[in-house]
Amino acid sequence: LVYTALDALAWARYGDEVPDVKERFLRFCNEYLLNDGQLRCAALDLYSARCAMLHCLGWESRLSEKGHAKAVVYAFGPGQSRAIEMLEHKSPGRFVDVNADELASALEVAYERVRAEAVASPSLLARLQQAEGKQFASVPPQLAQLMAEHPTGFPVELLADPSEATSLYRASISFSL
Prior knowledge:
This protein is mainly alpha-helical. It is built from 8 helices and 2 strands; from the N terminus they run ααααβαβααα. It has helices spanning about 1-15, 20-35, 45-55, 60-65, 85-90, 100-120, 120-135, 140-150; strands spanning about 70-75, 95-100. Strands 1-2 form a two-stranded parallel sheet. β1, α5 and β2 form a beta-alpha-beta unit. The longest helix has 21 residues, at about 100-120.
């Protein structure tokens, strides 16, 4: 979800000014997430991790496989991952340690910065409001009950038009000011 939020914030912040998803993500990370030195990774490492999660459901993306970015190894709680030492010993320079708690905290700080900027920027505020409108779908209470009771989460076979199911699976990232 952190990577989804970063993508969404990057879009909201830069919109059509930076149409390429990768460039927008990198710019946002460099300007809002990595500017204080708290995280010990590069924006490209985070983009690679985002791609690995989104496209490969794993830890390695094409960028890290080709050596253009480091593969992210996550640590939780205080300190760094113990696995990073073994991985670095076996494959020096291919991995970077990212503390998941610090990443989530950096995201919160970045979000608050964007939110504060929106107060002074009508175009940014409009993009945030546009994004909020795209992120939520209304689910009638009866359908929500069916979804909760169904083993896969949604009884698609009950819809007159199964293509309607996609509109019910939107991310719920709130940009409320």
